[in-house]
Amino acid sequence: MGKARLKTGERKDIFLYKTRVENLFINEFLPDAPGDCVKVFLFGLMYAQYEQQIDFRTMALTLGITEKDVDNAWKYWESKGLVRLTPDSEGGIEEIEFIRQIDLFYGKTLEESYPVNGVEKAGEETAAAEEQTTEETGEAPDTEESAASIIERLINRQLRDMFRKYEMLTGRTLSTHEAGKLTDSIKIYNIEPDVLDFAIDYCIGIDKTSIDYICKVALRWTEEGARDVGAVKQMLDKRSKRNDAYRKVFAELGFSRLPNPADREIMDRWFDEMGCTLKDVLDACRAAGGVRDPNLRYVNKVLENKILEKGGINTRAEQVRKTAAEPSLQTGQPAAAQDSARVSRKVLRDYYDYIRDEGEKDRKARLTEVTNRIPEMRDIFSAETQINSLVITMKPGPDARDKRQRLKDRRQEIEEKKKELLTQNGYPEDYLERKYRCDICKDTGYTDEGRVCTCAKERAEEAYEWISRTGNR
Q1: What are the residues facing 93 on neighbouring strands?
Q2: CA distances from 177 to 216, 341, 374 (A)
Q3: How far apart are CA 238 and CA 188, in angstroms?
Q4: What is the pLDDT of residues 63-119, one digit of tens each?
Q5: How much of the chain is helix, strand and coil, in % rounded to 5?
C-alpha cells in the first residue's frame, strides 16, 4: 500500500486487478467500523494502490452516500491511524496516505521481514540504500549499525515465523494485542526467540492456546535459568521423571488423589536433600504398608531413621569440622584445607537467598545515605522510576518506537547526571549499584545457561559456617 496520492486518470483498467487488504484491518478494525466508512476505505484503497485519483463527489455517487459522508469517513479512519490526511488551502483534503498496519503496530523493520500479501522485500531496500551511500560518499556503511540492523531483522523474521506457526496450529488469526505480547516477550523481557517458539509448540500440545499462558510459561523457564531449548528440555525431562516418581510413590501407598504442593515438597526433600533413590523411597513406602493410615510423614520418618543409622545427613561435614585443625598424616596440612563442608541443596539455596537479601539491604542503606547527603538525588530517583513505569506500560502504536527511544535517551541522561552527582560528592560512580559476591551468577548459584555456578563450592563452605552459627537448617 504505501504512500498514495489520488490522481486524475483512467480508472477502468484497475477493475481488472486485485485490491490487497491487510488481515490486521479485517481482524482489528472491520468488526467495529460503520458500514459507510468501510465502503469508503476499500473504494479509496483500490484507487490508491494504482495511484489513481477520484474526487469525493464521484466517490459519493458511486457508493450511494453523500460527500459529507465521504469526508467524515476519511476523518474516522484518520482517528484510527489507518490514513494520514493532508489538508489543502481551502480546508479540504488534498492528499490521503494509507498507513500499513504492520508499520503501525510493529515498525518498518518487522514489516520488511513479515510482509503483507506475501511480498518478501527484506534486505532489498537496505542493500540498495547501502550501495547508494557507498557510491555517493565513497565510504562503506556503518558496520556496527548494520550489525544491529541484521540482529533486529533476524528477531523480526523469527517473530514472523512464530505468528504464522501459531495461526497455522490454532486455525485463528493473532490479534495485534497478542502479537504485541509475543514481541514484548523477546524485546522487553529478554526471552530467547527459540525458547518462545518452543513454548508455542509445548503449550498448544497440551491444549493451552492462550498467548498470555504461552508467554508466562516461556518467562518462567527463562527465570529458572533455561535460556535455550536444550536447557528447557532438560528441565522438562527432570520434571517428568520427578512426576513419575510422585506417581509411583502414591501408587505404592494406595493414594488415588494427585499430590498437592505440600506433598511434593516432602517428596522433593527425600530426593534433593536426603539423597534418597527411588528404590529407597519405595522400600520405605512398603514398610508403611502395615500401618492403618499410611501417609507421607510416616514414610519421611522411616527414611530419616535409615539415614541416622548410617551416621546422619551431614556426617562428612561434621567430620570435617571436628578435624579441621588436625594435621593430615600424609601432608601435614590441616584436614580442612583438603576437604570442604557438605550441606544439603536446600541449605545452599537458603544461603544464596540470604546473601541476596543482605546485598539488597546493603544497597538500600547506600541509597538512604546518598539521598540524605545529596537531596537532588530524590528527584533523580523519582524521574527514573517514572520512566521505567512508562517503558513497562507502553502499548504498541504508530509512534511507540520513537517514544521508547526517547525514554531510553532520557534514562541515559538521568544515569549520567546520577554519576556526576556521586563523583562531585566524593562517591565512586558505581556506588549505588548492587554488589554481588559472584558477578557470574549474580548470587543465584546458576549461570545464564542454567548450569551450577563455579562459586557453589565456596558458597557451600560459607553456608556450613552460616547454619552452624545461626541454626538455619
Answers
A1: 87
A2: 15, 52, 43
A3: 29
A4: 889 988 998 898 888 888 788 888 877 777 888 888 876 655 544 444 443 333 333
A5: 65, 5, 30
